[in-house]
Design brief:
heterodimer, A: about 675 residues, mainly beta, five-stranded mixed sheet, globular, B: mainly alpha, 4 helices, about 75% helix
């Protein structure tokens, strides 16, 4: 009962203004390393527009607002059908895992800056390319260890870029490209020459693992490039899911872009939880409103992921969107999307910042897509609801050592991307091919809505949306002209069973990426997680398996939705009406187009932003599992995809950068 | 003359199957065909090889229970390969397997003498 009251109280408190919230007793204040009591950006500069005035694609999500929007119109609905491969480039940094190296997962977006296209690779190299031809300008090799220290594969999500406000001609490192590695090293490289920046940290390399001082069971893997705002690098890190109950607790660092000095750090977990839990880290991209001086953190779930008996205290910032002052690291507001998360529903994408008009009122909004398939929309200044977000009762479970949050937040608009309220229907074709295998499995799985707790009974609990999520790190794209939001979603069903420790020790076997046995060492339960498929690998649940959805943000209503991509198994393509699970995300342009890869069939596509009609497609080397980049160079508009693959979606890897333009 | 008429459909079946081997092997082995290295693409390579074997058999064995049995197998194999090729998006293979199917069907038709 105390918990009920506490969560309800906290939910109300979330709408308080930043100063009061940041001083709350349960919220961890940032640790200022160097007393940077500088005024915020908002007070020292002219107003900074949310949407850049020109075409910008110098970060993982294109712009700091994470809109993935380009104002370019050279490629548009009338000519996109003639889009052609302008050039492609193969990095050579690829492994299918069959040799000495782990498999690669390459979820990067190329960035266009300094009239150069920069890419980071899963072998932890930076490659600078001519944006018009793909010709190499320079390559930097970090010589990082190629071991899968925290992940099942070698992973990279690209690089980031900074330049001095007034670059000094002839001086090195006035423009810098940053690359992180799995072993927690951050490299700063001169953007013109590819040489290390001597004034940054230790000769151009920052050992972020020096701050890994609690439960340091693995290095703070820097797979997501830092978010660059002003002279700050805002840095999160990735870890090893499902492995330990006690793990490194989530921290976010602000690093001086020139020197590598730490400016502040934010501890996500309260002090009394850090030792006996962990993570609630920020492993994905962030977004920034430079005018407000806020960086928005998508915070993941605490450790261990599927049992929370070791962390029954309130952890207000876990599984949240948290707005933080860029200059001080103070929490200004926070919204928790899952209370006492025992489903690994990490907040897994940067919130998309958008100015929208609702009922005639201009609202500085933020849309947070989630693994749950919910799209939470709040005022990005205050964290208050734009459309009501309701606390609704959710079921409790049977594990005695567990605590079950009695309610969870449910948005009223936009509607959920998936229907998580009901147990998914069984796909007759898979059930027939499996001679009733799917029916038997589903009968043995509990499901009373998405927040059905993990259990030891039967085959476990049905998990829908799955651990990878209804929406992944590609997040939501937004067209500021039409106020249309575009998001791709996956409909995947898994099942999870908690296994008492002694039983787990007897039966556990190997595990793969997002499937198999996982120990949750230190917890009384290990776990087993698998996709709900029949013996042929056919999904047991009804299609579609992935969709592209357009939402009119003036009303919060769906404008159109359609299956996206084509599912593929053993080479066989399924009908287009079934769609494909997706990882990666869209980009939108003022040319009225949505570009996206993300699907199993390794195709890249263009859709009409207005209608969802597919207008163009092409085959690339592997699934594109990040967002495309849209840029203009020497008067020509290009669309760039990185075809790197991800074993979550399909065992297919690639090393291709595929860049398209309108042919002559 | 009778030999030529008797062999035209088995020969067509064989030729179509050989083309099918080439197409399917290319799709299996060449990069970025969409089915490179997949089990499904390998399966249609194998089915095309078996169809070619059936065609060669029928070139030499025109009648009898074994010939009929092989004709049935060839027809089923060609139809199955069409289905598989369709789901593999190997549309050239679909086209060539349609020809193989026609040839397999026509091979059932008894050869008539020209003069009565």
């Amino acid at each position: 009962m105390m918990k009920t009251l506490a969560y309800a109280t906290f939910a109300s408190a979330l709408t308080l203004s930043g100063a009061a919230f940041a001083q709350g007793e349960t919220l961890p204040p940032a640790t200022a390393d160097e007393a940077p009591a500088a005024p915020s950006l908002a007070t020292e500069a002219a107003p900074i527009p949310l949407v850049p005035e020109g075409p910008v694609w110098d970060g993982f999500h294109g712009q700091l607002n994470a809109q993935k929007y380009s104002p370019l119109t050279q490629i548009n609905t009338s000519n996109v059908g003639s889009l052609e491969l302008a050039w492609d480039y193969h990095t050579g940094d690829v492994s299918d895992g069959s040799g000495d190296l782990p498999a690669t997962v390459w979820s990067a977006t190329p960035i266009y800056a300094n009239e150069t296209l920069y890419i980071g690779t899963p072998f932890y190299r930076i490659i600078a390319l001519d944006p018009a031809t793909g010709e190499e300008r320079w390559i930097f090799d970090s010589q990082s260890t190629l071991e899968a220290l925290t992940q099942p594969a070698l992973k990279n999500r690209g690089v980031s870029y900074w330049e001095a406000e007034t670059p000094v001609a002839g001086e090195i490192c006035q423009k810098i490209v940053y690359l992180g590695t799995m072993d927690a090293q951050l490299f700063a490289v001169d953007a013109d020459t590819g040489t290390l920046c001597p004034d940054f940290a230790d000769g151009g390399v920052l050992d972020v693992n020096q701050w890994n001082d609690t439960n340091d069971r693995w290095p703070l893997s820097l797979l997501q490039p830092p978010t660059v705002t002003g002279d700050h690098l805002i840095l999160g890190w990735a870890g090893n899911d499902w492995a330990f109950a006690e793990a490194p607790p989530g921290t976010v660092f602000s690093i001086n872009a020139r020197t590598g000095e730490r400016e502040w750090s934010l501890d996500i977990l309260p002090d009394d939880v850090r030792e006996h839990s962990g993570t609630a880290n920020v492993w994905t991209a962030m977004s920034v409103d430079e005018e407000l001086g806020l960086v928005y953190l998508p915070v993941s779930s605490p450790s261990p992921n599927y049992w929370g008996g070791n962390r029954t205290e309130e952890i207000p910032l876990a599984t949240s969107t948290t707005a933080v002052d860029i200059e001080t690291g103070a929490v200004v507001w926070s919204r928790q999307w899952v209370h006492h998360d025992i489903w690994d529903y990490d907040t897994n994408s940067a919130p998309t910042l958008m100015d929208i008009t609702v009922n005639g009122e201009e609202i500085p909004a933020l849309m947070q897509a989630t693994k749950m398939g919910f799209l939470f929309v709040v005022n990005r200044e205050t964290g208050e609801d734009v459309w009501p977000i309701e606390e609704r009762p959710v079921p409790a479970g049977i594990i005695e050592s567990e605590y079950y949050a009695p309610t969870q937040p449910f948005p009223t608009l936009p509607a959920p991307l998936l229907d998580q309220a009901e147990k998914p229907e069984i796909w007759w074709a898979a059930d027939l091919a499996g001679l009733g295998e799917c029916s038997r499995l589903f009968d043995d799985l509990e499901y009373a809505g998405m927040y059905s707790p993990p259990t030891t009974e039967g085959s476990g609990v049905l998990s829908y949306p799955d651990s990878a999520g209804g929406v992944q790190w590609g997040g939501v794209a937004f067209d500021p002209e039409s106020q249309m939001a575009i998001v791709n979603t996956s409909h995947i069903t898994q099942y999870i069973r908690l296994i008492p420790r002694d039983e787990y020790e007897r039966i556990n076997g190997g595990s793969g990426n997002e499937q198999g046995y996982y120990p949750q060492t230190g917890a009384p339960y290990g776990m087993y997680l698998n996709n709900a498929v029949n013996w042929l690998g056919m999904p047991c649940w009804e299609p579609p398996y992935g969709e592209l959805v357009a939402i009119d943000m003036r009303t919060g209503k769906v404008a159109w939705r359609r299956p996206v991509g084509v599912s593929q198994q053993y080479g066989f393509y399924m009908p287009e009406s079934l769609g494909s699970p997706t990882i990666g995300g869209p980009a939108v342009t003022a040319g009225g187009l949505v570009f996206i890869g993300a699907s199993m069939d390794a195709k890249v596509r263009a859709y009409s932003l207005a209608t969802g009609e597919e207008l163009w497609s092409d085959l690339v080397e592997a699934p594109v599992v990040a967002n495309p980049a849209v840029y203009e160079h020497d008067g020509t508009q290009f669309v760039a995809f990185i075809a790197g693959g991800n074993s979550i979606i399909k065992d297919q890897v690639g090393d291709q950068v595929a860049v398209y333009s309108i042919g002559d | 003359m009778r030999d030529i008429r008797e062999n035209i459909w088995p020969a067509t079946l064989t030729a179509a199957a050989l083309c099918g081997i080439g197409i399917s092997a290319f799709n299996y082995s060449a990069p970025m065909t969409g089915v490179t290295g997949t089990a499904g693409a390998l399966m249609v390579v194998c089915s095309s090889i078996l169809l070619a074997g059936a065609g060669v058999f029928l070139l030499f064995k025109h009648s009898g229970g074994s010939a009929t049995f092989v004709r049935v197998l060839a027809l089923l194999g060609a139809l199955g390969t069409i289905l598989a090729a369709w789901f593999l998006h190997e549309y050239w293979l679909v086209a060539i397997m349609v020809a193989a199917t026609v040839a397999a069907i026509m091979s059932f038709v008894p050869t008539r003498t020209a003069a009565q």
